[in-house]
What we know:
With 243 residues, this protein is an all-alpha fold. Helices cover 65% and strands 0% of the residues.
Amino acid sequence: MTVDxxxxxxxxxxxxxxxxxxxxxxxxxxxxxxxxxxxxxxLRAVARGLGMTxxxxxxYFPSRDALLTTLITKTYDDLAAAVQEAADAAGPGGGAGFAxxxxxxxxxxxxxxxxxxxxxxxxxxxxxxxxxxxTTQAVRRMSAVFEREMFRGYGRDRLAAxxxxxxxxxxxxxxxxxxxSDPAALPPAAVALLFSxxxxxxxxxxLEVFGHTAFLGDxxxxxxxxxxxNLLTDIRRRIPDAA
Length: 243
């Protein structure tokens, strides 16, 4: 066994205690958001709920922004996990994975409206997510689930030939730049379809979570399901046949 293959030493008592404390702080912060909304979050309120001083909390989160970054990242991860679980349970055939992924997205948002508002509601004053930080990576993990389920079975050439209105050179350059150096990344036409589809799905969920479709009552789920079916049908109609 080489040095690199040796198992990592178990965490120390200090490290284990820190892990427990961080988890308790995050749980308390999420409970505070659920009860009072994201805008009311403060280190002082979280510390008070845990029976500790703000100075003690600073040992784990040196600022409100540090705690918010952890909370936002965890929220994205939990939402992505719900989407992934729903898609996996449906299987890959006939667009079932995409439909299930959108249902998982909606169910989680409706069940966790305050945490959903934390990531998609009114931006919190004075908070700026770190560039290319953990929140950005969490968003990409969730996007990857929808990308896979939406375009499952389609080769890059077919996606590049998707029938969409011509992109301006400037937008084409931006979308092409999102690919980076990955040759397997989506071509600009498919990225445009993905953004459009996500906006359609997310918009319906936002309207429901923020109470704007309450007049539909129990019919909201059926209308959402119909809209996602039509959305996927339209996307696939735009992708040319393999021949």
